[in-house]
Each structure stands twice: as C-alpha cells, then as structure tokens.
From TrEMBL:
Keyword annotations of the record: Hydrolase
Protein source organism: Loktanella fryxellensis
Name of this protein: Cell Wall Hydrolase
UniProt KW Hydrolase keyword: yes
Domain Cell wall hydrolase SleB, residue spans: 48-145
Superkingdom assignment: Bacteria
GO molecular function, one term: hydrolase activity
Organism ancestry: Bacteria, Pseudomonadati, Pseudomonadota, Alphaproteobacteria, Rhodobacterales
Length: 168
C-alpha cells in the first residue's frame, strides 16, 4: 500500500468518525443563539430570567467591543472568561428551555435595562479587592460591573439583587 493510499484511508476514516460524533452531539457546530443560551444557563445557574438576560447583555457588549472577539461563540468560548465547559457540558431538560428563550430574546435585541455597557460580572457573594469596579446591577446571583478609573467609581460594592426588570 502506498503512502498516498494510507493517507486517503485515514482521511476517510477521520471524516466518518467526525460525522458520527457530530450526529451524537459531540463536535456539533453551535450557532450564536446556542452559544448564548449556554453562557446564560451555566453562568446564571438557571436562577432567573433577569440574571440570564443580564449575562446575555454582557456577552453582546463584549461582541460589540474591540477588546473581545466579534462573534457570540468566540466571546463565550474565550479561555478563562466563562464557566468551564460552557460550550460542551450538557444542559438539563428543566433549565434549558428558559435559557434558550432568553437567548432568543437577546438575539432579537432585548437587553437588561441596568447592565448598560458593563462587560464583566462575578458571583454576587464574591468580594474582589479592586478599586476599579463600578457595580450597575445584581441579578440572578451575579454582580455586574464596569471597569472604571478608581476616581470615577461611585458604586464600589455589589447592589442588592433586583429581579423582574426584563420582559416576559
């Protein structure tokens, strides 16, 4: 058997394996709505629609920023930015519909009214020692903030959790 024949057979086998895995949901190419739903699902811990919309707003703010990739999936897939395995873990059947509906709403233009231009968030219980975090809202268990020069920060601690601000 020639080297060319071996390479051709390997390529065919690799293609068949990838096709099979794709059909099983592994290596599935995800669209922007699916990537957004996954970020919302895993980052808001399926806690509330407001929390999910706020996470989605941050993702879309990052997509619009020159500091981040320009697609939803690239933003969500950035290393060390979102929950580990956000694009590959399985979403359970109970929480997934809420995340998918919220992602559709954000893709159609809905935004959390208090997130504004914020590009960052962390668990509301976390206390960071930085002086450049200006908090704009807490929703769904996360505190959302803008990074500012320290003398421009007027809200240096996370706000009380607020719910019921987004459409249904």
């Amino acid at each position: 058997m020639t080297t060319g024949t071996v390479r051709l057979r390997l390529a065919i086998c690799a293609g068949l394996a990838l096709t099979t895995l794709t059909g099983c949901g592994i290596f599935k190419r995800q669209g922007p709505e699916e990537c957004l739903a996954r970020a919302m699902y895993f980052e808001s811990n399926r806690s509330s629609r407001d929390g999910m919309i706020a996470v989605g707003t941050v993702v879309m703010n990052r997509v619009q920023s020159p500091q981040y990739p320009d697609t939803v999936c690239a933003v969500v897939g950035q290393k060390n930015q979102f929950a580990s395995g956000v694009l590959s873990k399985r979403m359970d059947d109970r929480g997934a519909p809420l995340a998918q509906a919220a992602a559709r709403a954000v893709m159609r233009g809905e935004r959390h009214p208090l997130v504004g231009r914020a590009e960052f968030f962390h668990a509301a219980s976390y206390r960071a020692g930085y002086d450049n975090m200006h908090y704009v809202v807490t929703a769904g268990g996360n505190a959302f903030y803008e990074r500012r020069k320290s003398h421009l920060v007027t809200q240096p601690v996370p706000l009380t959790n607020m719910e019921g601000l987004t459409g249904r």
